């Protein structure tokens, strides 16, 4: 399963023009309708949150001892394998999930923002 949390700002920030944004949001909408993909959105009304410090990915692979992570920076990324650092990112993930809209509310917001780009 792929589980993604997005800040609402990335849906509203014009990158590539309105046609590109509309297409990207259509593709996100198609993706979120698949049973193996979940996208949840943190609304701008939350204000500052831990996700604003940069993107990260946590991979928990079957048959592997513990999870690993990848943290994005402004100019480079970093693989994170230390147990404490991965645990910190997992805690951050849980915090972000608690601030994100539900799956259905995220889908509604995605549809609303998509209309604004057409």
Report what the structure shows.
With 118 residues, this protein is of the alpha+beta class. It is built from 4 helices and 5 strands. It has helices at 8-12, 18-32, 83-99, 103-116, and strands at 2-7, 37-42, 56-59, 68-72, 77-80. Strands 3-4-5 form a 3-stranded antiparallel β-sheet, with helices on one face. A two-stranded parallel sheet has the order 1-2. Strand 4 (68-72) and strand 5 (77-80) form a beta hairpin. The longest helix is centred in the last third of the chain and has 17 residues, at 83-99.
What's the structural blueprint in terms of helices and strands?
Blueprint: E1 2-7, H1 8-12, H2 18-32, E2 37-42, E3 56-59, E4 68-72, E5 77-80, H3 83-99, H4 103-116
Parallel strand pairs: 1-2
Antiparallel strand pairs: 3-4, 4-5
Helix pairs in contact: 2-4
């Amino acid at each position: 399963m792929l589980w993604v949390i997005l800040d609402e700002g990335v849906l509203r920030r014009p990158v590539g023009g309105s046609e590109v944004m509309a297409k990207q949001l259509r593709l996100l909408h198609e993706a979120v309708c698949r049973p193996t993909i979940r996208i949840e959105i943190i609304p701008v009304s939350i204000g500052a949150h831990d996700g604003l410090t940069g993107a990260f990915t946590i991979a928990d692979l079957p048959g592997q001892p513990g999870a690993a992570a990848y943290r994005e920076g402004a100019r480079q990324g970093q693989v994170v394998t230390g147990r404490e650092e991965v645990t910190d990112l997992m805690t951050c993930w849980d915090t972000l999930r608690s601030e994100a809209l539900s799956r259905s509310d995220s889908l509604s917001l995605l549809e609303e923002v998509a209309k604004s780009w057409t």
